[in-house]
Amino acid sequence: MCGIFGVAGKPDAARLVNLGLYSLQHRGQESAGIVAVGDGEAHGYRAMGLVGEHFDAERVAQLPGTTAIGHTRYSTAGSSTIENAQPALVNFKSGHIALAHNGNLTNATEIRERLEAYGSIFSSTMDSEVIVHRLARSMATKPEEQLAEALQGVEGAYSLLILINETLLAARDPNGWRPLVMGKLGDAVVFASETCALDIVGATLEREVLPGEIIAVDKEGVRSLQLPPAKELHRCVFEHVYFARPDSQVFGGSVDRARRNLGRRLAEEHPAPGADFVFAVPDSSNAAALGYAEASGLRLEHALIRNHYVGRTFIQPTQEGRDAKVRVKYNAVRDVLDGKSVVMVDDSIVRGTTTRGLVSLIRGAGAREVHMRVASPPITHPCWYGIDTPERDQLIAARMSVEEIGRHIGVDSLGYISREGMLGAVPGGPTGFCHACFSGEYPTRPPTILKKNRLGGS
Ligand code: AMP
Prior knowledge:
Elements: E1 2-8, H1 13-23, E2 31-38, E3 41-48, H2 51-54, H3 57-61, E4 67-73, E5 88-92, E6 95-102, H4 108-117, H5 129-137, H6 143-150, E7 159-164, E8 167-172, E9 181-185, E10 188-192, H7 196-201, E11 204-208, E12 213-218, E13 221-226, E14 235-236, H8 237-243, E15 249-250, E16 253-254, H9 255-269, E17 277-280, H10 286-296, E18 299-301, E19 304-306, H11 319-329, E20 330-332, H12 334-337, E21 341-346, H13 353-364, E22 369-374, H14 396-399, H15 402-409, E23 413-416, H16 419-425, E24 433-434, H17 436-439
Parallel strand pairs: 14-24, 17-18, 17-21, 21-22, 22-23
Antiparallel strand pairs: 1-4, 1-10, 2-3, 2-4, 5-6, 6-7, 7-8, 8-12, 9-10, 9-11, 12-13, 15-16, 19-20
Helix pairs in contact: 5-6, 9-10, 11-13
The protein binds adenosine monophosphate.
Adenosine monophosphate (AMP) binds next to helix 13.
C-alpha cells in the first residue's frame, strides 16, 4: 500500500508535499520520495525509511518548483529497495515524467514482457513502471490524452499522480479500488490519498477523483477526462476497516463513522454478556472498540498501551521484523486487567501473530477471561489489489476454522463480524466494495505472476 500527495500551483510545492506525506506515513513506511518541477527542470529525492528521516527544510529547499508529487511506500509484492522507491523520475523525448502509484496492476507482467520484446529497458521491479514506458511512447498531444492512451488495457488497482513536465495528472482506475481526493488551497490544486493530508496543509476538500477519471492541472487550468466506465465499483473495504486514518474521508465517507458502525454491529452479532469491560488494540481499533462499548453498554477501558515510537507491526516485509515488533510495541496495564473478564477488540486478524502475542500479554497481566472480537470477517485470501497479504498459507483463517483460531490464540471466545455486517456498516455500502480478501470473490483474473521480487505494486 502507499500514500500519494500532489500540489500544482504553489511556489513552495515540495514543502507542502512534505507535510502531506507526514499525514500519509501510515500508508507506507519503507520509502518516501518527492519530485518537484518548475522552470523546465525536475528535481527529485527518494530514500528508504520514514518521511521525517530524510526530508528536512534543507532537503526540501533543494526541490524547487511550483508543482510537486510525493509518495510513501510499502511493497506489496515487489522488493523493498531504493530502485522501487517512488516517485519514479525519467527523462524522455519531450522532457520529464514522474509517477507515484497506489495500488497493484494485475497484468503488468504481460505488458512489461511485450515492452521488453520491443527493446524497453526497465530500471525497477515496480508494476507501475510500465505506465511510464507507455507514456513516453504516446503520440497524443495533451498530457491527459497521453495518460488515457497509456492506461488502455492496464488492469487492476491504481490511484496515480503523474507529472509530465509542468502538468500534474491525477487518475483513478475505473473500479475505484484505491481512494484519491482533490482539494483546493487558494488557487492551488491539491491531491491526496486521504483527506487527513489535505487538513495538514490547510486545503479544503473539493471532491473525490472519480473512478476512471483523469484530471489534468497546469497553467491552462483544470481539465477532466473520463475513461470508459467500469461495470462495477470495487472500492477496497479494507481501507475503512484498517488502512485509512479515522480522521479521513475515503470513498466519500468517514472512516471514523465506518469503524464505530463496525464495532456496534460486532457487538450485536457477538455480545459478551458478563464481561467487565471492553478495550481496543490501539490505535487502529480504537473507534471500533468505542462502537462496541456503546452498543453493548460495557465500559471502555485502556488496558493495552502502545509504544508510539514503534511503527505498524505488519508493515515489515519479513516475519522476523514483525515478531520483534509485536513484543516491543504493546504492553498491558495490570491494574486494569487483574482478575477481570475482558473483551478485546481488534480490526482484523491476518497471520495471527499479533493477536496470539497480545492474548498472552493480557493473561500475563492477570485477566481471568479474554473474549476476542474482530471488526472484520476472517481473512481467507490474499489481496491482489495493493494490500500486503501475499500468500494464502500465511493467512490463519485460510488454514483454521474460527474455533481452531480461538484455541490457537488462546482466547475464551472469538467472534468475527459477518461479511454482510461489515458491508452494511461502511458508508456507501453494502454494494460497490471489493471484499475478495474475505470472500475469495476476485473481480478480475489473477495477476500473471504472484511471486515476490517479480513485479511489485505500491
Ligand atoms: P497479524 O499478526 O498478522 O494477525 O496482524 C494483525 C494486525 O495487523 C491487526 O491488529 C491489524 O491492525 C494489522 N493489520 C491488518 N492488516 C494489515 C495490513 N495489510 N498491513 C498492516 N497491518 C495490518
